[in-house]
Design a protein that fits this description.
- It is a single chain.
- The chain is about 5% helix and about 45% strand.
- The protein is mainly beta and about 450 residues long.
- The strands form 7 sheets. The chain has a 17-stranded parallel β-sheet that branches. Strands 13-15-18-21-24-26-28-31-36 form a 9-stranded parallel β-sheet, with no helix packed on it.
- The longest helix is centred in the N-terminal third of the chain and has 22 residues.
- It is elongated, with a radius of gyration of 30 Å.
Length: about 450
């Protein structure tokens, strides 16, 4: 029996030693360089725009040991050391240099990286570079493999709420048009002031941030075809670029007046523009040559407002693209209201028209809607029913007309005036890629939004 137990013990001991020799590197044992086979998930870890003083999102690279032997690194770290703008987590270790890291044969490890950029005097984006170095010894000496780290840094003007407040007040007379602006919390255009934005101005919003035009305030967005004014999220890494719901809204609150938005691009928020009650003899908002896309709830919500819109694309929103609700009036021409929302089944059409609401005590509150006129427009999408919802209370005015429009679900529309309208697929270039230009021979030719009025077609 003792001999049998000894034989079993000896067999397992030899097996373990043999396996250990295959998977580990003994202390002081060096491999030939030809036996070291490393690969990386990427050769360059690139960060898109990172605003100075604000940290980036975390990105990762995976290091693979594709050889038959374990690899022990004498040092792994960021080449710039403490002076680098990059910081790494190397297989769970946040030291600037990790020594003795070992990757078993056929195994891998993760390196996570963030970057924080210091401000400087540059107006244009500037490149920040460094390297992750992986150093190891082999029988021929010392070798180093590197992963390139790059980030584009940008200086910016920051709108931060003061301590204990949720908002900051914009100094409209001294708006800096040379740098992008980063909005944190609510940035307010105060009463009786006017914020004028010019071609090339860029506004980047933190999560839940909002541009709020207060009572008697005015917003003038005067972009150009070549340089539209941009409203978007601070997150500019590729995965976030088309992601809805990353900030709140542009809110033209009750009492704001004479607002103009021409040549703008508003993307990736929750509601693109909220337009509240009209207060004078001019439209609450004149909107033209503008693209509003990728909003988690809606592109435009007008509540008792007066909207004039021409050559506008409102597309791909989670609940509805445009809602003219609680009454008001509107003239919409040469515009496309389209919704191919892909994150979940949409529960409402692309266009909602409404002349009443229910108060907190359950009473119906009537608000006259009209005149509302759509001319040369397209209202289309992937909703299972008509893309126009008519929510009419017959006890008050509901004056809505469509002329020379393409309307999905045309035959199911009632209580609206229709003239020379059709229900045919407008044949967009590529809805899957948010390209809503019309193909040659489209039945909607001559109607809807035209990119000739805006430099953005996606």
């Amino acid at each position: 029996m003792k001999r049998l137990l000894f034989a079993i013990f000896f067999f397992f001991a030899v097996t373990l030693i043999f396996m250990g020799g295959m998977s580990c590197v003994r202390e002081n044992e060096l491999l030939a360089d030809s036996d070291i086979k490393l690969s990386f998930s990427t050769d360059t870890l690139a960060f898109d725009t990172v605003f100075t003083t604000m940290g980036s999102t975390t990105r990762q690279v995976k290091v693979y040991n594709c050889g038959k032997y374990a690899i022990r690194f004498s040092a792994v770290g960021i080449r710039g050391g403490q002076t680098s703008r990059f910081r790494a987590n190397i297989d769970g270790d946040t030291s600037m240099v990790v020594r003795g890291l070992e990757i078993a044969a056929g195994d891998s490890c993760f390196i996570f990286v963030r970057v924080n950029v210091n401000p400087n005097s540059a107006v244009e984006p500037f490149l920040v570079e460094d390297f992750i170095d992986l150093q190891y010894e082999h029988t021929g000496g010392v070798a180093r493999r590197s992963i390139v780290l790059t980030a584009y840094g940008r200086n910016a003007v920051y709108h931060n709420p003061k301590s204990g407040q949720s908002y900051s007040v914009i100094d409209c007379d001294n708006w800096n048009h040379q740098l992008p602006h980063v909005i944190i919390g609510q940035a307010v255009v105060d009463s009786a002031t006017m914020l004028t934005l010019l071609p090339g101005d860029e506004l980047y919003f933190a999560p839940d941030a909002m541009l709020w035009v207060y009572n008697c305030g005015t917003l003038k967005v005067l972009g150009s075809e070549e340089q539209p004014v941009l409203f978007t999220s601070i997150r500019q890494d590729e995965w976030y670029r088309g992601l809805p719901g990353q900030w709140n809204a542009v809110w033209l609150s009750a009492g704001s007046k004479d607002n103009v938005i021409d040549h703008a691009k508003i993307e990736n928020g929750t509601i693109g523009i909220i337009i509240d009650t009209n207060v004078n003899e001019n439209p609450t908002l004149r909107l033209s040559n503008t693209v509003i896309m990728h909003q988690a709830t809606a592109g435009i919500v007008a509540q008792g407002a007066w909207l004039e819109a021409d050559n506008v694309l409102v597309a791909d929103c989670g609940t509805t693209s445009v809602a003219l609700q609680y009454g008001g009036r509107a003239t919409v021409s040469n515009s496309t209201i389209v919704d191919y929302w892909r994150y979940a089944a949409r529960k409402m059409p692309a266009l909602v028209l409404n002349n009443w609401y229910q108060s907190s005590d359950g009473q119906s509150v009537l608000r006259q809607l009209g005149p509302v006129m759509f001319d040369n427009c397209i209202v289309y999408g992937n909703y299972s029913d008509s893309e126009v919802l008519v929510d009419r209370n017959p006890s008050t005015a509901f004056d809505v007309s469509f002329s020379n429009c393409v309307l999905k679900g045309l035959s199911r529309l009632s209580n609206v005036e229709l003239s020379d309208c059709i229900d045919e697929n407008p044949l967009f270039e590529n809805p899957d890629e948010h390209d809503y230009r019309l193909k040659a021979g489209s039945p909607a030719e001559g109607r809807g939004w035209s990119p000739a009025g805006s430099d953005s077609d996606k």
